[in-house]
Amino acid sequence: MSIELKDVSKRFGPVAAVDRVSFQVGDGELVALLGPSGGGKTTVLRMIAGLEEPTEGDILVRGQRVNDVPVQRRNIGFVFQGYALFKTMSVADNIAFGLKIKKWPSAEREARVEELLRLFGLEGLGRRFPHQLSGGQRQRVAIARALAPRPSVLLLDEPFGAVDAKIRQELRDWLVRMHDELSVTTVFVTHDQEEAMEVASRIVIFSRGRLEQVGAPRVVYEEPANEFVARFIGVLNVLELRVEGGVARLNELTFPAHGVAEGQGLRIGFRPYAVQVSRNPREHRYRATLRHVYFLGVLMRLELATPSGLVVRSRITKDEFTRLGLAEGDEVSFHVREYRVLARDGDGLGPEVSAVHHAGTLGEGI
Amino acid sequence: MNGGKPSGKPGGRPRSRRVLPGFGLTLGVTLGYLGVLVLIPLGALFLKASGMGWAEFLKAAGSPRAMASYRVTFGSALLAASVNAVMGTLMAWVLVRYRFPGRRVLDALVDFPFALPTAVGGLTLANLFAAKGWLGRWLEPMGWKVAYAPAGIVVALVFIGLPFVVRSLQPVLEDIDHEVEEAAATLGAGRLRTFGQVILPTLLPSILTGFSLALARAIGEYGSVIFIAPKESEIASQLIWYRLEEYDYAGAMAIAVVMLVASFALLAGVNLAERWASRFQR
To answer: What is the pTM of this model?
Structure first.
């Protein structure tokens, strides 16, 4: 096990930024720490690095407790959000900085710098100063500098936050390839669920300092451990229902009551792709008007309004959209193929959810 | 004009359009202003000095007394500017990096030598370091004579040059990204190495800027020095004043020209060093 956290907490005064978090990262894994901002994920990363001291709990790197090991001797590579390159040093000197401290002989040092420049597509840029590089190049120099002394763990804080969308996609692909080649244990922080799903082999999800779920991207998407994860990963339609006459009901929409007592509340969620739409207003169970169509590339997002005014979001492929011959303003019918019970009354979950949809709180595209 | 490019207006000559207008006007005003304030007086100085023959010039500018005054002037100015470079860096560091009660008062105190008439500064220092002064009575028994000694000149020049390095350094220090220091730490660097190899090189251009300002100020200083300087070592400005009192205008001019050329060369040297230190920004 490369990294292990055991009941780690970090309190700033009375506020627990990280609250009794435990998880493990295996050798050579690529793991994302995901959560909304202020969720405590960056604090966790900084505690692993030794830049922040945990208030409670143990942090182990390669089986050794490192709580009392200063940052200088933890042998970790850290990539900062703003890169934090040494601007008075050339690219080569930046990469060599850690090697000089570790007293590598100069021949080996130069060979290592050359190797990294080549590996990171920075040939010929060794003598440049950081301000003469593009954002993507700076990012790669920062990673090369962190990897140069062969750290046992590579930590990255929001590595793709500061570059534009196209470069971001390239850097993601590049990070995955880099990780495949070097197979160094890597942990990165992101608030972008899409990024975490795409890059990481496992995702650790935080919210308000607490760990919500750890799992492979597919697992957290398909089997979310709780409502927070279900709503944070991907897009979700959420309905607040009340049990009347044996079925859970919200206006014209009804779901089985799952043994919930009469008069109790029930909250269910369903993914937009689980909403099946037909142009024939009688084919499916519910009728609706196609209020808006959003073009997302290969997918289309449909906004359906039921006669009572409920809004349901659906997602279908462009091909299917064309085949169905849909257009804005059409009268359609739909039904929900799959859904998930998020909460029942008395489960202690917050009552803040209103009856209308809560889809798409985060990025689009999944 | 056949086949030429169409000009802007009929009958008018083509005009270049700049985003920022008024280049010609502002440059003209700048040159005229600098001419009246700097170039014409300097030109007059050289003109006056060029009236002397070479032998006469060398005799006036190269006399043992004049040579001694150059040594005192430039020696104390360099020493004072160096002291200010080190202490100013320290003060700027304390004022920017730490939060403590009285920080704002301390920050305001730094400007004090600018606001005080230099003669008042010189008098105060002379009194303080005199044999019976608050500081002199402790220092002189230990053999450290400051007032009416060469060290007094340095103290006066340190005093008047105090704000330069502090003020040139503060904005740069405020700009230093905390993450850069953390990055050095994750790569294994201790505090001393982080300061010496990461922070100091970033500050060096501004330290040199402050150093050259303090140096220029110290070379030109007169008011505070005359109250604390000993009789036997005088600065060049004092010597020029004595020459003028003796109606030896040519002699005064000769020394002034040497001062001018030497100061120019010295400042040019510091500027070169500053360019080298800031090579990473180009």
So the answer is: 0.79
